[in-house]
Amino acid sequence: MTNTAHRNRTPLPPAVIGVGVQGSTYMQILSALDDRSSLRCVLTGPEAVTELTRTPNACLLVVVPSANESLLLAELLRIRRLFPSVPVIALFVNDVSSHRATLQLGAVGVEELIVVQQRVCPDSLLLALTRVHATGVAVRLWKHCNLRLPEAAVPLLKCALRLAHAPLTAVQLAANQGWHERTLRKYCVEHDLPSPQWITGWARLLIAGHYLEDPGRTIQAVAEMLRFASASAMRNQLRRYSSLAPSELRARGALSILTNVLEQQVRGQMPPRRNETSQRQATGVDANAAQ
Q: pLDDT tens digit string along 147-191?
């Protein structure tokens, strides 16, 4: 399957709220979204607050520079206080270095920066949106599940959840921690944690459980969206870890059941060890994705 096909089914925020997005920039963003996410444009911070109040799980897309950058920063600070978990993307429409105020964007929680030369690059925009959406889902899922895990496991699973919308290897998890894979494996052994593959596999299952609770998504659609090797691969992994089929999990509350099973396994009821190949097949990581 091509990268384009993967990109086209990767989830985006349900709505993008553009601040200062006008003219040709608006049309380019609208074309890139291609009905996968709604685009609502406002001119001021108070208008953005109104839209964010109406639209849960939205993303803020801010054009820089604006007519008054100091005012823009002040309004973004207010938005961040009111909506601390709302992802913010800055769209630079001119030379970044020529605007001193852009250096302060980190203080208002800007998570992604996109530089526009002549046109908005659709791939850059979609990549930024998928990243902030995946991070937002991970944060909300973590708060919702309220997992009781050993302290040493928390940063690993939090990191894995952010990356779990796609096949995830131990090498990738280690790299996102700033480690070599051997360091990650040593860390797990020293802290009496399960293997990295077990952690990444559970992150994938929790994300799957999150989407299974949406009755508007079919099981096939969830498997494709999360890039499992097949719907059967996702079903098999869910059965292996929870003893329930996806339809049963959905009917009984997927996240609640998966959370309880995960906590039981961490407390000592670990699944039998399997070899690397079977673990990759279960988590939807094929040989090409692992390279």
A: 999 999 999 999 999 999 999 999 999 999 999 999 999 999 999
Place of tokens 């929790």: 206
Question: Is the N-terminal amide bond of 56 cis, ω within 30° of 0?
Answer: no
For the chain, give every residue range classified as CATH 3.40.50.2300.
3-136
- DSSP notation for 237-289: HHHHHHSS-HHHHHHH-HHHHHHHHHHHHHTT-PPPP--HHHHHHHHT--HHH
291-to-135, 170, 262 alpha-carbon distances in Å = 24, 11, 28
Q: Per the structure block, which two tokens stand in for 229?
A: 């090797």
Please say whether the structural domain 146-290 has been given the CATH code 3.30.70.260: no
CA 3 – CA 233 distance, rounded (Å): 20
The partner residues of 63 in beta bridges, in order of sequence, read 91
Secondary structure string (H, E, C) spanning 114-144: EECCCCCCHHHHHHHHHHHHHHHHHHHHHHH
Assigned token pair, 257: 């059941």
The strand pairing partners of 39, in sequence order, are 16
In three-state secondary structure terms, 187 is helix
Per-residue pLDDT tens digits for 98-131: 455 556 676 677 888 888 888 999 999 999 999 9
Range list of β-strands (E), 52-128? 59-64, 88-92, 110-115
φ/ψ bin of 141: left (φ > 0), alpha (ψ from -120 to 50), beta (otherwise): alpha
pTM: 0.75
In the chain, where does the domain assigned CATH 1.10.10.60 lie? 146-290
CA distance 20 to 66: 7
Superfamily of domain 3-136: Response regulator (3.40.50.2300)
